[in-house]
Amino acid sequence: MSDGNHKFAFFLGCIAPNRYPGVESAAIRTGKKLGIDLVPLKGASCCPAPGAFGSIDLNVWYAMAARNLVLAEQMGTDIALICNGCYKSIWEVNHKLKHNNELRDSVNEVLKEVDMEYKGTINVYHLAELYCNDDVCGLDRLRDSVNTPLTGVKVACHYGCHLLKPRKDREFVGETIGDTEHPTWFEKLVEALGAEAVEYRNKMQCCGAGGGVRGYDIAHALDITNEKLINMTDAGAEAIVDTCPFCQLQFDRGQFEIKDKFGVEWNLPVLHFCEMLGLAQGMTPVELGLDLHQTSCKSFLDKLNTRGWWSKNVPPDSDIDIVGGQ
Amino acid sequence: MAYTGKKVLETDTFEPRIGVFICHCGTNIAGSLDVVAVKEYAKTLPHVIVSENYAYMCSTPGQNMIHDDIEKYNLTGVVVAACTPRLHEPTFRTATANGGLNPFRFEMANIRDQGSWVHMHDWDGGTSKAKDAVRIAVAKATMLEDLYPMAVPVEHRALVVGAGVAGIQTSMDLTKAGIETYLIEKEPTIGGRMSQLDKTFPTLDCSQCILSPKMAEAGRMPGIKLYTLAEIESVEGYIGNFDVTIRRHARGVLTPNEAAARGIVGGGCTGCGDCAQVCPVVRPNIWEFGMSPRKAIYIQHAQVVPLIYTVDFSACVKCGLCETACGAKKAIDLDMEDELFTIKVGTVILATGYETIPIEEKKEWGYKLYDNVITSLEFERLICASGPTIGHLIRPSDGETPMSVAFVLCAGSRDNTGIGKPYCSRFCCMYSLKHAHQVIEKIPGCKAYIFYMDIRSFGKAYEEFYYRIQHEGAKFIRGRVAQIQELPNKNLNVIAEDTLLGMPVEIEVDLVVLAAAVQPTAETEVVRRLFGVSCSADKWLLEAHPKLDPCGTTTAGVYLAGVCQGPKDIPDTVAQAEGAASAASIPIHAGQVELEPYYAQCVESLCAGCGMCVGLCPYSALSLIINDTGKTVMNVTAAKCKGCGTCGGFCPGGAIKMQHFTSPQILAQIDAFFLGGEL
Amino acid sequence: MASAKAYKDAGLSARLADRYYRPAQDSDPTFVRDVEKISGTVAHICYQCGTCTGSCPSAPRSSYRIRNFMRRVNLGLKEISLTDPDLWLCTTCYTCSDRCPRDLIPTDVIMAMRNMAALRGIVPKNFLGTVNFIYQTGHGVPNSDANRAARVKLGLESEPETTGKYPEYLPAIRKILEAYGTKQLADKVLAEGQ
Lengths: 326, 679, 194
Known about the structure:
The complex is a heterotrimer.
Chain A: E1 6-11, H1 15-19, H2 21-32, E2 36-40, H3 50-56, H4 58-75, E3 79-81, H5 84-99, H6 101-112, E4 124-126, H7 127-132, H8 139-144, E5 154-158, H9 175-178, H10 185-192, E6 196-198, H11 213-216, H12 218-234, E7 239-242, H13 245-262, E8 270-272, H14 273-280, H15 298-305, H16 309-313
Parallel strand pairs in A: 1-2, 1-3, 3-4, 5-6, 5-7, 7-8
Chain B: E1 18-23, H1 35-43, E2 48-54, H2 60-73, E3 77-82, H3 85-98, E4 106-110, H4 112-116, H5 123-141, E5 150-153, E6 157-161, H6 165-176, E7 180-184, H7 207-220, E8 224-227, E9 230-238, E10 241-248, H8 256-261, H9 274-278, E11 282-284, E12 293-295, E13 297-298, E14 310-311, H10 321-326, E15 339-345, E16 347-350, E17 354-356, E18 373-375, H11 376-383, E19 404-411, H12 428-442, E20 447-452, H13 462-472, E21 475-478, E22 483-486, E23 492-498, E24 503-509, E25 511-516, E26 518-520, H14 522-531, E27 558-560, H15 570-590, E28 592-595, E29 600-602, H16 612-616, E30 622-626, E31 632-636, H17 646-650, E32 656-658, H18 663-674
Parallel strand pairs in B: 1-2, 1-3, 3-4, 6-7, 6-16, 7-8, 16-27, 18-25, 19-20, 19-25, 20-21
Antiparallel strand pairs in B: 5-28, 9-10, 10-15, 11-12, 13-14, 17-26, 22-23, 23-24, 29-32, 30-31
Chain C: H1 10-15, H2 23-26, H3 29-39, H4 51-55, H5 66-75, H6 78-83, H7 95-99, H8 106-119, H9 125-137, H10 145-153, H11 170-179, H12 182-193
């Protein structure tokens, strides 16, 4: 367990700041209690979206991601981020450029035109990975930061794809986080917050949104999402927790769309791990922007409330609408 | 070697006269480089008297060219530019000797394996490299000396390491050929993997029924010195004279002979089992893959050879109940210690077998995570009448009889990910067909699904067996299993693509059997290093030649039998075991072997007697002596020396001469390469 | 591939079309080479075991078969691959790539084919929409007024520290998009669609 302080350039991405600002806010605020100092990366853009950009031209994807990397290189700080899609772009392009001189040269040729040069001087981390890492934070420190444990709720962890896969390209240390078939580190993170993590069938399945499929064939994407929702609820899950705002969008807005397109209603709250961590550290639903979620988080919050969580975190005279949902 | 000794040459007094012969190897060499240009180039080299090219130098006419040219041109050295010395050095040495030269006046340039084959698409580059190789070989040939092989006697005994079916067969053959044979097995009983199998394909005869008589016979043949619970501790020596030290692990139980030696009349273990009855310590029986219990004093199964109980000292609490139960036989000695002894043998056969890979590392199939995913070897025990369930196949989670079983072939075989193995494990297809037959036969109505990539039924009557299993109703799905999901009732969803239909397929079954890939046993690597035997990249022991010397190794006097050399089924294993026995008996029956004269020699006039080389020698071949003049010098025991050059490279005084690899010879080669042959 | 016969009855001609695959005319040997170069994976050692399709979340709900695309790559069936709408159903979850026993990355083979299709202007519009959003704002999912209000409510600035707040970073982004012709491709294809 680390008790030090670590500064990172916080790569925001798009969906967190522009759709779930509570995730951005929670990451920064909860980080302060964990020695993870997140300084938003100035001038960053879209990572860019690995599905959309990678599909059109991998070279432009490399160059655009490299521009973001150079911003952090200029800051002289490693990057931390909160989105699996961003991880694929920023981590993977950093990795490729570090190991492939030919590719690096071709990218630098274009960056030169905008007075930039990729040097390969920084590393890229997902916050989830930092929470697990004893040298930065570690489970004990995470557990110690909790003042209002989320006891009594059953949560289904959605790992997502692009943080972990393809495994052969990733460089996680140790068996646990590198396992892409039956990993358990996310469950351990959730349990550190006091919640109960449930195992469900085909846990590692994709949310359905990636690769541009959400935009290309929304029904197809939602059908995958729906299968995950079936497996999660079969296992008794009362909420979904994710590490990726894009997956979160697919589950959150997706339930709305599933109801519209398929006539199937789930009402399963969807939270980013940072949001859940925020709740466990005593942030209120409003401070976390949970009311911005399209699928209401009320059932989840009510579950916590029956265990006295509510009175502690939300003042009785509060008139704030925490129901959310649209 | 038919060296006539007709011409004895002194290099000091003769101007070298070298003949160069370029082989086409059909189109193997001539198709990728300009052999005529190489021949013409050779003519320009110093001391080259004649240069020729021919389609197959290894053929009789090719060898005759060498023979004739030695006589015609009065050659002092012969260079053949062809394949590798590993293949044809003996051939050309013989031809050189037949021509009347000392055979060690032959030098080979490898322009095929290291030339045309690796530069197949670079005509000019390949030609140029071949010229270099020839120039270097000629430079050495000008400095070669007459050498004489040394004959050493061969001990009339053999050692077989590993007592599976390969080790048993090879030991029995050797013994029947009149050679006393030590058979060493690390387990408490002989029998190996085959004794764990229920039935054998394609004949379906019972594995134990055909193996047990052999085990029993091997156990009682006077010519077989059987040591179970024993491992190789160290090895010294060379072909004909291996000194092998054996560690016999403390068994805690005396055989009748051992008891007699201790003066216990009528004592020793009779295999009655009274001891195990009273033993209070229960451990999983590893031989049954932990699916049945055994005591701390135990036999692995009813057919063990020798029928002597074994104390598991890692579990024994030394309560002494067994000693009481044993009574007057006094067979149990709980203070027994490991015993080391050294044997002398002429040849050695390694038969160290295989184990399955840790298939749980292929996490998508959930072995060790899902109760009802088992391996094929576990299946063998569960379907075997002498197994933990008396032959009633059950699923581990609830003991119920499975009514649907999926067989996952290529589980970790043909796998380039680094977790599995890149090779085909070769017998999984056939035993999985057998398993399908067994579930269909034993459990009426049980469905068998075989997920396969290719069914490799290449052996005699194997394809017919495949037809038979199709007739019996097994369902064949051509697709590798992508994942297995456990359902709440512990059933398993097996998911793959039926690649012939082009449809994803999901089948809910009661039991999944993984045909896990095989790898050499952990001990193989240890034994291999002790005997200096090479292995291929996949860790299987390397045969001397894959086609023409499949039982031999590159270490003279050491041979291979069974799966340690690569996956093979029982017929192939037994065939190789008999081949290895035959090969290993040849030097023994010949009574002596010739050693290549590549040993180090001490130039006593230069030797300061510092002795630093003595400790460096990996073969303990060197010692310090006082010579006739009273000077302390190093002395080489030629038969022990392998000519590795460690001492010669180190000697501060340059007093050690490596025969056939002398410093002048090697420097001439280096000069020839860098200086283009102009010295 | 299936070529219609010159019979007078067009319907019969189509129904009885010659369906032989003849490498000499149907196979483009440059296809596998180009795909391997872009994807960086040696697609030609695929042995068609189907582990990829069996791992694919899209396979059970569509006609998309990633194994089939791997087969087409190896046979040089470029035309049918690049024009097949199924090409765009890969969610890029990389499960096939984790499990491929040949240690290939089939997902990147799909990405390579998408790149080649896009060069020809075959690319779904939603992909190009993302390009335009980024060209204009730096974000694939841009900020909105509702979100700005929400941000302020949370104590954040209405614009994040990204190109949203610092539009002076946009020219560099636009230059990159133009340098690779990505913006031009988006404009051209989107204009054709209207």
